[in-house]
Amino acid sequence: MSAVSKTFHVTTFGCQMNEHDSERMKGMLVALGYAETAEQQEAELILFNTCSIREKADSRFISYLQLAASYKRRNPEIVIGVGGCWAQSVKEDVFRQFPYVDVAFGPGQVHKLAEFLTSDSLTAQGFFEFEGFTGHLPSARARDFQGWVQISAGCNMKCSYCIVPATRGRQVDRPLEELVAEVREMVDAGVAEVTLLGQNVNAYGRAVRGGSRSSFAALLHELDAIDGLRRVRYTSPHPQDMTEDVVRAHADLASVCPHMHLPLQSGSSRILKAMRRTYSRERFADRVALIREHNPDIALTTDIIIGFPGETEADFAETLEVCEEVGFDGAFTFIYSPRRETEAAELVGDFVPHEVSVERMDRLVEVVQRRALERSQRFVGRTLDVLVEGPSRTDPSRLRGRSGHGKTVNFSGLAEAGEIVPVQITGATSQTLAGEMSLLARALV
Ligand code: SF4
Known about the structure:
Blueprint: E1 7-12, H1 16-31, E2 35-36, E3 45-50, H2 55-74, E4 79-84, H3 85-90, H4 93-97, E5 103-105, H5 110-118, E6 125-127, E7 146-150, E8 152-153, H6 164-168, E9 172-173, H7 176-188, E10 193-197, H8 216-224, E11 231-235, H9 244-252, E12 259-261, H10 269-274, H11 281-294, E13 299-306, H12 313-326, E14 330-335, H13 354-376, E15 383-391, E16 399-403, E17 408-412, E18 420-428, E19 432-437, H14 439-444
Parallel strand pairs: 1-2, 1-3, 3-4, 4-5, 5-6, 7-10, 10-11, 12-13, 13-14, 17-19
Antiparallel strand pairs: 8-9, 15-16, 15-18, 16-17, 18-19
Helix pairs in contact: 12-13
This protein binds iron/sulfur cluster (SF4).
């Protein structure tokens, strides 16, 4: 299939790592001479980058796939490709379930798509070995002032509810020098903010492929030394590996943002054990104390799972207690969803009825939002540096951006996307801040 001005369309499901992988997929296709189209029905190459973190993700994706199949019935020349974690989790079965799929590839095999497209293969092909880093492929960034950087692939943890180790393999890290060179290139191309990506970023440096052992803190220090790099963010760290040198990096390095997303999952040590999270409630609290000792103003956000098999009212009460004590600036909250081939999926006897989980979720959200609202008041009256992302979603006459703390800020003022401007904060909800661009502070910049 020659690429001359063929069009492609990519639908991305799931996490930031998938967004990153899709940017690389697009960069690779553009380098092959393809052109992206925003209309799926106009594309000659229809691609899906799938997620498999929850049952719901699968069913939503399948409805999209069936729509693509209807376009292919009208034009058999269309090529359909499925990548990402769902493809990796079912492998060759993709073709048995969906015979109209032409190519399937796992998260570690995006580059194989290029091989398939430039080959004269007429038969459907699947590629599922954990081979390469998508971070090695050219990138078509969604925003030219923000960039994802894949620092590692895979995960060595064994959280009992998680399918990621099965779909992304064991942890492998990219050499520090390679990452520094990549970020330097991004900054030269106009990137102001990078987000470092890994399943367990703060374990970085123990499994470096083609380079010497390093550490996450060492990487942060090297990146902070790059002239012109304004902001460094990262996701997701693991509380077990949240070492003092990383905590201090937030306090000592100007570019490391005052925001940490630290997944708690449950406040009950009994449930954390059943989840195989390798830390207890006390250890989590100890990490929070250390983080706040060195970074009193840092924003802390988290992930929490409700209704994990065996969760009692007493376990849930502990989750609420931790949320009251810590006072997170925000939280992603999920009702447990069994994933096939995970250890927790075997715990059928301890299933928590859905209506019980829903009722607990309501109580959890009330606590999280109330504490987040209390926490966000500390920004009112202060001037914060905001990276402008574009017009406000709620009021196009205003601008939207993100503070270093990771808070969305809607504000009045004149600025371009990609600029970092001082904004006087005038109001705060649990989720967002409101403000006015400080012309005085800007004049002084
Ligand atoms: S740390 Fe646990 S939850 Fe996160 S990707 Fe690894 S196994 Fe999954």
